[in-house]
Amino acid sequence: MVVNSCAVTNDAVAATRRAIRRARRERPDSELIVTGCAAQIDPAGFSAMPEVSRVIGNSDKLNPAAWTSPEPVIVRDIARVLDTAPQLAGGFEGQTRAFVEVQNGCDHACTFCAIPAGRGPSRSASIDDIVAQVEALVAAGHAEVVLTGVDLSSYGDDLPGTPRLGDVVEAIIVRTSLPRLRLSSLDPANIDARLLELLTNEPRVMPHVHLSFQAGDDMVLKRMRRRHSRADAVRLAERLKTARPSIAIGADLIAGFPTETDAMAANTLALIDDCAIVHAHVFPYSPRARTPAARMPQVPPPIAKARAQALRDAARQRHRDWLAEQIGDIADILVERPGTRGHSPGFADVRLPPCPPGRIVTARFTQVEGDQLIGIPL
Questions:
Q1: Number of Cβ atoms within 10 Å of the Cβ of 128
Q2: pTM metric for this prediction
Q3: Which end of the chain is more exposed for a tag (fewer CB within 10 A), N or C?
């Protein structure tokens, strides 16, 4: 059994430990291997768990010898692992949407983040390899691909000629017949001009962007060591919405960052309306060991949780208003398994009558139920 661990928050690490204990109870005689980011960052801690047979960090999980060595812990310094990034998956059988990891690792040092210690420096795949992967996925029947990366916007910094993410997107559009392309989280401080043009003008690039804003207050952003200001975030959102009014904006937001006051929290809350955020990923700040933010004056957890809830409430209302605005609209929906739901170009969740999974159907939105649009195929 293999448990692939996450280290983005303390809750994620705790969930990993619970999964390990549950797996051991279910399969008491199996070898249990822990890999992933938490294993890379704290190999000794996971090795000390009596349920764990072996720990293999991210730096070694593609090394066949690591899986057969008698040594219980095999974790190298990931910063010295000079691979050329991604583990390009061979296929996504049984899934409608496919994912292509074009970049891994991060060269930045946000004060709250432990992920660079788990993933190492930024490494990018070549454009030719990415295009070949997308071509193979299209041939396998996938109508939508999502480009992913730990710091996706930094794509190409390590490659000869420093190609940008916009160059990757353009190559996919020009050299493949992929119907729908999405991007995972983007750093608002590093969106190149060609990428911005394609996001706002290319119909095969879905009108949906997720931005790692993290906060809406300048002092908090400075203490996070982010590379954009509140005004930068608002200008970017306005530019996207002006050029492509249908674009749906998502954002990552952290509540209760160390030293955050009520006024600072209010600035982040106001960002939801100021940037027309309809897809919000909100979580309370989690102090990660050995990060600078963990040494700053902490906001009491109950306050952080209350601020996170206020953000979620505001984002949920904004999302529902956005859904209601689309009643009567017609859109192409990618049908997902089991065939009774899908997602619109703006990534609205849509309920459908039974349709063949994997097809793109044109539907009219008739009403909103909960957090879903109801679509009737035309």
A1: 10
A2: 0.90
A3: C
Per-residue tokens: 341: 């739901």
Cα 250 to Cα 368: distance, rounded to the nearest angstrom: 20
Q: Which DSSP category does 159 fall into?
A: S
What count of other Cβ atoms lies within 10 Å of the Cβ of residue 133? 23
Residue with tokens 């879903």: 372
CB 17 within 8 A of CB 50: no
C-alpha distances (whole Å) from 346 to each of 220, 326, 333 are 30, 11, 10
Q: How far apart are the C-alpha atoms of 269 and 362, rounded to whole Å?
A: 35
DSSP label at residue 311: H
N-term to C-term CA, the chain: 46
φ, ψ at 136 (rounded to 5°): -65, -40
Alpha helices in 97-207 (DSSP H): 115-119, 127-139, 165-175, 193-201
- Per-residue pLDDT 10s for the chain (378 aa) are 999 999 989 999 999 999 999 999 999 999 999 999 999 889 889 999 999 999 988 878 877 888 887 665 555 555 555 454 445 666 677 788 999 999 988 999 999 999 888 888 899 999 999 999 999 999 999 999 999 999 999 999 999 999 999 999 999 999 999 999 999 999 999 999 999 999 999 999 999 999 999 999 999 999 999 999 999 999 999 999 999 999 999 999 999 999 999 999 999 999 999 999 999 999 999 999 889 999 999 999 999 999 999 999 999 999 999 999 999 999 999 999 888 999 999 999 999 999 999 999 999 999 999 999 999 999
Please name the helix (run of DSSP H) or strand (run of DSSP E) that holds residue 13, with its range, or none.
Answer: helix 10-26
Determine if the peptide bond prior to 160 is cis (ω within 30°).
no
Alpha carbon distance 110, 154 (integer Å): 14
Q: Find the helix packing angle between 230-243 and 262-274, rounded to 10°.
A: 10
Structure-block tokens of residue 342: 């899908």
CA gap 173, 103 in Å, rounded: 19
Which residue carries 């909960």 as its tokens?
Answer: 370
